[in-house]
């Protein structure tokens, strides 16, 4: 038995932002190996492929929100995208992400607060593995809608359980009812393949406000 | 042989039930060969697969709402499901469905009206190719939820275009907001493959505390 589950558990049992940052500091260097090889973490690739089906140009401006070590940026880069920006709360994770050399600007920010980006800054926002217990609250969807241009896309993963219990579903439905965005697809498929864990992959189109 | 777009036009442009039933009466016998052959109607296969993913077992009691000639019923039967019940508005289509010998019962009914079916009568509902132009109102969702037990599933296709134009999207979201059901998946799927027409393939779980009329 390796210690992967323990480091992983620490990231969603954190009760304060400081604990969360600490948990990722301890994990940053081993994160890619532990998740991809250890747990069969396929979320970044699956989500990148989903978003790619909707984007018109490899020049699309994409924000990787909650980029972690940059696995999504890497997957998007392999698909030909060259205007990807990174955002994360953890400096330690951002350092690993930066080393992958797939991002333009890199931003340190707390997604539980208002983001410093202008309205309609991006053609797409992608957020993989960050909408979960102890990480980011459902109000973040309002910010994603604000910083993504109308006609652009928001692509994210959310785990069953957290989806219902953490208010994500409620906020998503309410934003859709208010015509802030429109669901294009929601599929439940492999997330941590070796652990038999699936997640919901969602893609929304941002509407004219 | 009526396999041309005129057939499909007649079905989509019907302005009342009499016209729609006329269209299907002319078409019933050639429907399977026309849709499967010329149009590449693949929606039943995708919907049956979606049902298979969420059904807890093959013994679930399924309502095939808008069964037509029984294409979905046939595919579900081939997958091992054995308690499937048919509902359609067209007597002519129901006759073809009955001849397949796969349904436990058959019922003639209008999905735009209140159904003479008890609450929670089914574990699951499948509704393929019925939520489209000229066919069934968005209010049908309320009835499908009513006849499905809590935690049961409803799988359906909506033809592209009709999803927004025909009020389906608004009703689906309103029902989710009221906690009548919860979306499990929504996929873009081929509908009439040879005509390049797609559909939304949706699976919802019926919730226990929902209020369909909210």
At the fourth level of CATH, the homologous superfamily of chain A is Vaccinia Virus protein VP39
The fraction of residues in strands of chain B falls at 25-35%
CATH names the topology of chain B as: Rossmann fold
**CATH-scheme architecture of chain A:** 3-Layer(aba) Sandwich
Query: Helicity level of chain B, as a percent range?
Result: 25-40%
Number of E-type strands of chain A: 7
The geometry of chain B reads as globular
Unreliable stretches covering 5 or more consecutive residues of chain A: none
**Biggest sheet strand line-up of chain B:** 3-2-1-4-5-7-6
Can you tell me the CATH superfamily of chain B?
Answer: Vaccinia Virus protein VP39
CATH architecture verdict of chain B: 3-Layer(aba) Sandwich
Note the total helix count of chain A.
Answer: 9
Instruction: Report the helical percentage of chain A.
Output: 25-40%
Count of structural domains of chain A: 1
Order of helices and strands of chain B: HHHHEHEHEEHEHHEE
Largest interface: A-B, 13 and 12 residues
Question: How many separate helices of chain B?
Answer: 9
The first-level CATH class name of chain B: Alpha Beta
Oligomer class:
heterodimer
Walk me through the topology.
The complex is a heterodimer of chains A (209) and B (214).
Chain A: H1 4-13, H2 17-27, H3 31-38, H4 43-52, E1 62-65, H5 71-78, E2 84-88, H6 91-99, E3 106-108, E4 122-131, H7 140-147, E5 148-158, H8 162-165, H9 168-177, E6 181-192, E7 197-206
Parallel strand pairs in A: 1-2, 1-4, 2-3, 4-5
Antiparallel strand pairs in A: 5-7, 6-7
Chain B: H1 5-13, H2 17-27, H3 31-39, H4 43-54, E1 62-65, H5 71-78, E2 84-88, H6 91-99, E3 105-108, E4 122-131, H7 140-147, E5 148-159, H8 162-165, H9 168-177, E6 181-192, E7 197-206
Parallel strand pairs in B: 1-2, 1-4, 2-3, 4-5
Antiparallel strand pairs in B: 5-7, 6-7
Helix pairs in contact in B: 1-2, 4-5
